[in-house]
Structures are given as structure tokens and as C-alpha cells.
Specification:
By secondary structure, the chain is α/β, with parallel strands linked by helices. It folds into 2 domains: about 110 residues, Aspartate Aminotransferase, domain 1 (Alpha-Beta Complex); about 230 residues, Aspartate Aminotransferase, domain 2. The protein is about 40% helix and about 15% strand. The strands form 3 sheets. A 7-stranded mixed β-sheet has the order 2-8-7-6-5-3-4, sandwiched between helices. Strands 9-10-13-12 form a 4-stranded antiparallel β-sheet, covered by helices on one side. A two-stranded parallel ribbon has the order 1-11. The longest helix has 17 residues.
Length: about 375
């Protein structure tokens, strides 16, 4: 086991003892399941989910659909598979999908949008990651037999690589209405949609009601170990289930994972404001360090992307030096570093990370 990233969790908290573990700010995917999640996993009633007979999965899918005001849900192994299944369910080979240039489905899902779904991304760069209709409309192909046809618009909220920015509901609703008027579907990559809802002070059903399908992750801000969910109409979920099986996502007695996801779904959204407060605290402290630039307007949820060019070192060099000091972060560009707050990093841990960062810059 890597002593930097893996240590024995405590029986009392289920979290790693702060004195012996790194401050891991690489992502909110690195969290460990809580004791309540572990108990639920051990005690889960299970069946064969491919036959639709796992009662814990069925309960999770029904609860997720209820929370989003949808007819049905589908538990999938990952957010990437959820997005891929949704794209394939709404498109045909040769269609085009409109997405922001840094969108996760375009940048970080192994080009499955093309390699597997057979679609071509049509992208536009927007500085804050939030597409508006005036940026989408020029990308939509006119009807005819000479060009690939636009079939789908995919939005992302919160937007990972734009620094966790959130779609205002009036903008996403407008996009959905205008797309629907042209016969297009709109999918939401809502991997961190509960973070977006927390930022907006609205429930997830209200801010996603006009999307044709929504994917969200249990294994990011919600802290469960594995899994994501698709929600939509029953007809859409029936198609999606077929593609989930086609892509190898048919899981059998998977209620052991769905049980942890159920705990995450019911318990975790209410504490996400803590992660957001910690991100703001961290971002403001980073902005005061020499050579570091942070656009505080973009720090809306639990993601911070900051510029280190003023230090005279690359992001990779800074990240490697921080790792030696037991602080983990990811370089996302030559001079850009991303840090993500989550339930396994409290305020004292953030203070420890800032102390090490200051010491690193002072030594340089």
C-alpha cells in the first residue's frame, strides 16, 4: 500500500487519521466509505440486477427517480458509462453532439463519444464553462443530406474543468426549450449536480426538470465508493438498460454497492455546504500566496483551479514538490493546478496543506 494515500481507517469515524495520511486534494473521488455505508453494504439484501431482481438496487433507482421528479432510474458502474449510455440512447452513428470544449464527455472519457457511440463532438469554448444559446445555435447543423446532423446538446453542471461553475437554471432552461423546439435532446452530465444544487439553494428536481436525461455520481461529492445513476423517462431508461448491458455494465448482486449509494443519497447532500466553505477558505488563502492566481468568481462549489505561472515553475513541478510534503493535487495544464475539497478533508487538514504550500514557496 502507498503510505501517502492509503492508511488504516479508524473504527470510530471511518476516516483516515489526520496525522498519518496525506491531505488528498486531487479529487472528491478519493473518499472512503463511512461506517454507516460499510454496515449497509454488509447487510444489503441482494438479487440478480440483470434480471431486475436486486431489491436494494431497485430501491436506489426508485429513490433517485423520485428525488429528480422522473419516472425511472438506472444504476451504472461509473459516470463515464452513464454519459455514454445516454448519448447512445439519444443518437445514431454519425450524429453530432454539442458540448463545451472542456466538457468531461469530450476530454476525459476516452473519446467513447466517438469510438463507441459513433458521434462527433461539436465544441465551443466558454471562459466560465457555461454555454448559452447564442454559443450553441451556430453549432447546430442545418437539416439536409450533405452534413452530419445535430442530435444532442450535453451540458455539465457543476463544470469540472471550468473550476466547478454552475449553470443558472434560467440559462439551462432556455437551452432546453430552444433545443426541444428544434427536435433536439438535452442531456445533463450532472456528476456533481448536488454540489450545484447546494450552491443554488434549490433542489435537484427544480434545476434539472427540463433536461431529457440526467447522470449523477455517487462516488464524487456524495462520498460513496462506486456508482452513478441515470434518470429520465421510463422509455429512455428501458433503452439505456439495453446499452448498459451491451457495454458490459450489467452487474449481478450489486446491491452491496447500491446500499452505500443509498446512504450517500440520503445523508451526503446536507453536508456539501461544508466542502464549499472549505473550498472558498482554501481559494482565498491560495490567492494570497506569492506567484499564485485564483479567479475567486469561479469558486462556486468544491473545485479550485489556480495558476502557478508566477512562481516560475510548472504545475507538474509544484504538484510533485507538494506530494513530497504529503499534499496531493493534480496538474491540469502547464501552469494550472486543481484542488478539490471533500468529506475526508476538514479545515485543519486544509490548514496543514496551506502550511506546506507556503513552506514550499518560501524554500524556492
Amino acid at each position: 500500500m502507498n503510505p501517502i494515500t492509503a492508511t488504516q481507517t479508524t473504527a470510530e469515524t471511518g476516516r483516515q487519521p489526520a496525522a498519518t495520511t496525506a491531505v488528498d486534494l486531487r479529487s472528491d473521488t478519493v473518499t472512503r466509505p463511512t461506517p454507516e455505508m460499510r454496515r449497509a453494504m454488509a447487510e444489503a439484501v441482494v438479487g440478480d440486477d440483470v434480471y431486475g431482481e436486486d431489491p436494494t438496487v431497485n430501491q436506489l433507482q426508485a429513490r433517485a427517480a423520485e428525488m429528480f421528479g422522473r419516472e425511472a432510474g438506472l444504476f451504472v458502474p461509473s459516470g463515464s458509462m452513464g454519459n455514454l449510455v445516454a448519448i447512445k440512447s439519444w443518437t445514431h452513428h454519425g450524429d453530432e453532439v454539442v458540448v463545451e470544449e472542456r466538457g468531461h464527455i469530450f476530454q476525459y472519457e476516452m473519446d467513447s463519444i466517438s469510438a463507441v457511440a459513433g458521434c462527433m463532438p461539436r465544441t465551443a469554448y466558454v471562459e466560465d464553462g457555461i454555454l448559452t444559446w447564442d454559443r450553441i445555435e451556430p453549432l447546430i447543423r442545418p437539416k439536409g443530406g450533405l452534413r452530419a446532423q445535430t442530435a444532442l446538446v450535453s451540458l455539465e453542471s457543476s463544470h469540472n474543468m471550468a473550476g466547478g461553475t454552475v449553470y443558472p437554471p434560467e440559462i439551462s432552461d432556455d437551452i432546453c426549450e430552444r433545443a426541444h423546439a428544434l427536435g433536439l435532446r438535452v442531456h445533463l452530465d450532472g456528476a456533481r449536480i448536488f454540489n450545484a444544487a447546494t450552491y443554488l439553494g434549490r433542489d435537484v428536481a427544480a434545476i434539472t426538470r427540463k433536461f431529457d436525461s440526467v447522470m449523477f455520481c455517487f462516488s464524487k461529492g456524495l462520498g460513496a465508493p462506486v456508482g452513478s445513476m441515470l434518470v429520465g423517462s421510463r422509455e429512455f431508461i428501458d433503452r439505456a438498460r439495453t446499452y448498459r448491458k451491451l457495454y458490459g455494465g450489467g452487474m449481478r448482486q450489486v446491491g452491496v454497492l447500491a446500499a452505500a449509494a443509498l446512504v450517500a443519497l440520503e445523508k451526503s447532500p446536507s453536508r456539501l455546504h461544508e466542502d464549499h466553505a472549505n473550498a472558498r477558505y482554501l481559494a482565498e488563502a491560495l490567492s494570497r500566496l506569492p506567484g499564485i492566481k485564483v479567479d475567486l468568481r469561479k469558486v462556486q462549489t468544491n473545485i479550485i483551479i489556480f495558476d502557478v505561472s508566477g512562481t516560475g515553475r510548472t504545475a507538474a513541478e509544484i504538484s510533485a514538490a507538494l506530494a513530497k510534503r504529503n499534499v496531493l493535487a493534480n496538474a491540469t495544464g502547464k501552469h494550472a493546478i486543481r484542488m478539490v475539497t471533500h468529506c475526508d478533508v476538514d479545515r485543519p487538514a486544509i490548514d496543514r496543506a496551506l502550511h506546506e504550500f507556503r513552506a514550499l514557496l518560501s524554500a524556492a
